[in-house]
């Protein structure tokens, strides 16, 4: 059943864009640098963190071989370098189709814990940057998720009340933030083992229930996205 709403605010990493390869490569290289194995449990602990939190978590997992700020910045630099390689950044299944279907019918925004300059690059490479009316990162919001401030700031920039907006998230911190902001939350976990507290939890953006939530015809799922040749991004 469609949920009445006036705007949609998306997370980016793991929700709209699959950055897993770039992040996994960066974590693998950083952990190898300090001779520490990167296991799946440790990798899951790093999902949805902003720079300061990421640095602290990396310092804990690596045995504090360097200041947290240095470790967090090192990973971000590795990711920025890695995302320039062909095939490392691709849209999540259904992301381009859903954003294309929503674009022009209601305001769209991004609320993210990733620096805006990195997110802008992601969106441009996915071919959907122009669909968004606002991109809000933790610096612009004044706090990172799980604080609701990124979502509240995004809604304010769109000129809509949070109670009339839908959030789309893949991480626990993100769903906590969106719920605290008073939004209807669609959860699409990027890692199956992550339990999300959301109003709707779906396997991905191609799930017909997600499209029905927005009141968008599911038939548009099979329509080729403008400018997209397959699912990969050059």
TrEMBL record:
One of its GO terms (molecular function) is sugar-phosphatase activity. InterPro entries: HAD-like_sf (IPR036412), HAD-like_SPP (IPR051806), HAD-SF_hydro_IA (IPR006439), HAD_sf (IPR023214), PGP-like_dom2 (IPR023198). SUPFAM superfamilies: HAD-like. Keywords: Hydrolase. This is HAD superfamily hydrolase (TIGR01509 family). It comes from Sphaerisporangium siamense.
